[in-house]
């Protein structure tokens, strides 16, 4: 997985690109417009319109002989009540992209017609007045900037990554302990080292494996994506430039609908560029360093508990009754991400980022929004203390449990082991 992981993650970014290129079949749609105002729906690489001048019965009768994808029928009654009056005839279920494109274009033409007839206003002029506004926040004391959308996405991603990592590597520790116990190899190992040393060695060893895999995943994934961008990006860049140049040429047939489509595309592109610029404004050295700390100690805390569970049972099926109390704080912190993002400085966010069992996820969600230094240091200190306390408790269960066979363990039995 150290090698396959980056390939899979890079594939998640690259494969959709190629799939979208392969699925660029242009659908030809016959348009029968009885109103006479929709003969300029425009075309793109996905949809092309073929306008007909006949009656609906003849059009439906001749549909099988035509090589078109569908028949779009716009009756005269649609001028009075367009909702559900327009029909899309096809022998296949239409895709959402096609129907959304047609609906958006027709909606714009309808609105433009009403504005011209009722108020003498051209909708194109209204579109020209539209602007894109992005609000960024700045700390009045420190001067640190936060961008709401980018900060939210970054916090979600960091929190989810910590949540996934703790579960993934923590379960590896538990399965490893169960395997050593059932194969009786642990009886040989504890003859040479103390149970606490064995427990700590297993936890730290898998932690280093996790850190190594993370660093390799980051480096290899970025390398694959960068190479892909260099090899494919220049070609796509030339295509985009040629399309932009073609659009820039003056044309007397340019109509408001086309201007509307281009303005929407420009606005979307501007928003994407702004978002990418906002992502580049964060101190990623600090964020990655804090991520490694909270991942490491969050994992160490939960890995000790997972190891204690593994030592108390004889097979993985018996772990379910003990897993729920341990995983509830993890699941709760993940479920509460949304209210924490809504109010990252509120009391819920504060206390969940201080309690060691929930702080690894919640604090990583809050860090992009800006966290006071004293809260960050307090959370880090309590997380380290929580790890030491959980490891001490887990070791008391571990030293007894690894040599206990053939007995169904209950919480009462675990309590006895803790008091030995």
Count of DSSP H/I helices: 15
The helix content is 55-70%
Shape: elongated
Q: Could you give the distance between the termini?
A: 41 Å
Order of helices and strands: HEEHEEHHEEHHHHHHHHHHH
- Largest beta-sheet characterization: 4 strands, mixed
Structure, described:
The structure is a single chain. This protein is mainly alpha-helical and about 425 residues long. The chain folds into 2 domains: about 25-120, 3-Layer(aba) Sandwich (D-Maltodextrin-Binding Protein, domain 2); about 145-225 and about 255-420, no CATH class. It contains 15 helices and 6 strands. It has helices at about 5-20, 55-60, 95-120, 125-130, 150-180, 185-190, 195-250, 255-280, 285-310, 320-335, 335-340, 345-350, 360-365, 375-400, 410-420, and strands at about 25-35, 45-50, 70-75, 85-90, 135-140, 145. The strands form 2 sheets. The chain has a 4-stranded mixed β-sheet. A two-stranded antiparallel sheet has the order 5-6. Helix 7 (about 195-250) packs across helix 9 (about 285-310). The protein is elongated, with a radius of gyration of 31 Å. The two termini are about 40 Å apart. Mean pLDDT is about 75; it is low at about 235-270.
